[in-house]
Amino acid sequence: MPLQVGDPAPDFTLPSSDGGDVTLSALRGKTVVLYFYPKDSTPGCTTQACDFRDRQAQLAAKDAVVLGVSKDSLKSHGNFIAKYDLNFPLLSDKELGVHTAYDAYGEKTMYGKKRMGVIRTTVVIDPAGKIASYARNVRAKGNAERTLALL
Questions:
Q1: In terms of residue numbers, what domain contains 20?
Q2: For residue 38, what is the domain's CATH number?
Q3: Is 44 helix (H, G, I), strand (E, B) or coil?
Q4: Which listed residue, 67, 73, 106, 111, has the most CB atoms within 10 A of its CB?
């Protein structure tokens, strides 16, 4: 069952492009924008990441931390960050455990065919660690702007 607004956000620890690990519960007291995307350096994912990059100052002014999550490796994340000058960490969820906990992995239809894959999902987690907003199947373009408007 998908997460609902008001539910406690599932805690996790994932390796980060910043080095070391990021644990969600360690970010209590801040708003966390957690967005799941399919693949580094693909057109939609690049648009989405660059939009979050370009709104980083506005998000930080609202005490929000942005974390991108995909199943890509830290090496791939490093290349993606360097190529597009991203200014927030990307987390690697190779085993898809966090994707699954946030219902961001499952059956989807692409080009008329059903298959399993990453479902573009954006979750806003409030400073108390509860789901403040949950959006599944989001459009890459405009996602950062829509998220900022929620804050």
A1: 13-150
A2: 3.40.30.10
A3: helix
A4: 67
